[in-house]
Write a structure and sequence with these properties.
Strand content: under 5%
Structural class: mainly alpha
Number of strands: 0
Largest sheet: none
Distance between the termini: 75 Å
CATH topology of the domain at 42-132: Cytochrome Bc1 Complex, Chain D, domain 2
Order of helices and strands: HHHHHH
CATH class of the domain at 42-132: Mainly Alpha
Radius of gyration: 21 Å
Helix content: 40-55%
C-alpha cells in the first residue's frame, strides 16, 4: 500500500511546476536567439550588428555566459564591468576577434565556417573593432 501511495505522489502534478496561467513563460532575452538577418550568409553586406546578435548574442549579450565570464575577468583587471559586453569593448581588433572565433579561447569553443561563415565573421569582426578608442579616436 505504501508503495502505491509513493508512486501516486510522484505522478501527481506539482503546483510550482504547473504551466503559468497564460501558458509557458517567455525565456529571458539572452536565452533566445535573435532572428537570422536577411541575405546570403556567404556574401558580405548583411547587417553586422544583426549577425552578431544572431550568431554570438546567445553568449555575448547581457546575461549570457560569455558576458558573465568576461565581466568577472574585467573586474579582476580593475576595468569597468561594462567591458564584459563585447559590443562595449574599445580594445578589440578585427584580427583578434577572428583568431578567437576560429580558434576558441577559454570556455569559448572554436566556431567553424558552418557556425559563422567567413563573410559573417568579417562583418562581426569589423563591427566589434569599429568602436572609437578610449580617447575618442579610431584605432
Amino acid at each position: 500500500m505504501s508503495r502505491f501511495l509513493i508512486a501516486l505522489a510522484l505522478l501527481a502534478p506539482i503546483p510550482a511546476m504547473a504551466a503559468a496561467p497564460g501558458g509557458v513563460p517567455e525565456l529571458p532575452p539572452y536565452q533566445m536567439r535573435a532572428a537570422q538577418p536577411a541575405g546570403d550568409r556567404l556574401q558580405p553586406g548583411r547587417d553586422p550588428k544583426a549577425v552578431f546578435e544572431h550568431s554570438c548574442g546567445y553568449c555575448h549579450l547581457a546575461g549570457g555566459m560569455g558576458s558573465n565570464l568576461l565581466t568577472k575577468q574585467m573586474m579582476m583587471m580593475k576595468r569597468p564591468p561594462s567591458d564584459g559586453l563585447l559590443a562595449n569593448r574599445r580594445d578589440l581588433t578585427a584580427d583578434y576577434v577572428k583568431a578567437v572565433v576560429r580558434g576558441g579561447k577559454g570556455a569559448m569553443p572554436a566556431q567553424t565556417r558552418v557556425d559563422l561563415t567567413d563573410a559573417e565573421l568579417n562583418a562581426v569582426a569589423a563591427y566589434l573593432a569599429q568602436k572609437p578608442g578610449p580617447k575618442g579616436g579610431k584605432k
